[in-house]
Every structure is written in structure tokens, then in C-alpha cells.
Amino acid sequence: MAVKMRLQRHGRKGYAYYHIVIADSRAPRDGKFIERIGSYNPNTNPATVDLKFDRALYWLNVGAQPTDTTRTILSNEGVLMMKHLQGGVKKGAFDETEAEKRFNAWKAGKENAVSKTKAQLDAEKQAQIKERLKAEQEVNKAKAKELAAKKAEALEAKVEEAAAEAAPVAEEPAAEAAETPAAE
Fold first, then answer.
1. Tens digits of per-residue pLDDT, 36-79?
2. For residues 23 and 34, is the Cβ–Cβ distance under 8 A?
3. Neighbour tally for 89: CB within 10 Å
4. For residue 97, what are the contacts with CB-CB under 8 A and spacing of at least 6?
5. How far, in Å, are 4, 16, 36, 66, 72 from residue 56 at the CA level?
6. What is the pTM of this model?
7. Which has the closest alpha carbon to 41: 74, 25, 18, 8?
8. Residue 173 lies in a domain
9. How far apart are CA 60 and CA 80, in angstroms?
């Protein structure tokens, strides 16, 4: 029986996530499997991987063949690195403690790189938020300026209208006063 480590699709259309399973190569993609060893969610940034490290290493050592995508996931999680180091221990190139030390150094470097990437993404996101806020403030200032100009125009129009109404009223008493002395 050929055993594969592969992804089993779950989720809805356009928003898939995957279970990492050990299955017979003849079984359907989403069908019967031997063991579920983890999950993979590509919808998050960075992608979320939850993996049973020991079980994945066990299945690799007993001959399970990972698919291309699963191989990449296992490589990123360090399972293939540990298998490689265990091979070095079997050959006598170094001992188990040296293998653990090398793996821990690799894992620390990997976690450091991931944390730097996350920090960079967060910084870019904050910069975009500040940029949008600044642009929105500029738009609001322009709108406020335009509104102030419209209010000033309306006020000027009202003042002119009031002055136009007051001018004939002021002219009438002056005209009456001018007519009164002529009549006397």
C-alpha cells in the first residue's frame, strides 16, 4: 500500500483551508484517511500551520511520500530538517545532542525571520492607516474651506439683500423730508 502525506480540502468556496493527512494514495482526496497530523490555513497572513511534529516525522521515517505542497509545509516547519539530521546521526557524522543543537539554531533563525516579516507587515499596515488618515484630514480641510466660502457668500448675499431693503426705506423718509419743506 502506497501511503501519502497530502492535503484534504475543507471550507467554503473561495475560502479553503486544509487538513494534513496520511492516506492511501488510492483513496479520494477528501475521503478516507489513516491519520490527521495537522492543518494548514492559507487565508491568514502569514499562513497558519498547526502540525503534530512527532507524528509527521514518524510517517516520513516509515516511508510516507509527501505531495509537493505538503513537502513545502513540512520543510518550513522543520520536519525535513530533523529527518536530515537524524540521518546524519545514523551515519555517525555527529551525535544526538549536536543534532538537537543544530535544529534549535535553525528553528530560532526561522522564528526570527518570521517575526521580522510580521513586524514589517504591521509597520506597513500602520503606515497605510496614517497615510489614509492624513488624506482624509486634507479632504476634510478642503470641504471645510469650501463650506466656509459658501457660508461667506450666503452671508454677503443676505447683507446685500438687507442693505437693498434698507436703502429704499431710508430714501422714503429723506424724500418725505425733502417734500415737506417745499410744501411749506
1. 999 999 999 889 999 999 999 999 999 999 999 999 999 999 99
2. yes
3. 15
4. none
5. 11, 22, 10, 10, 13
6. 0.68
7. 18
8. no
9. 8
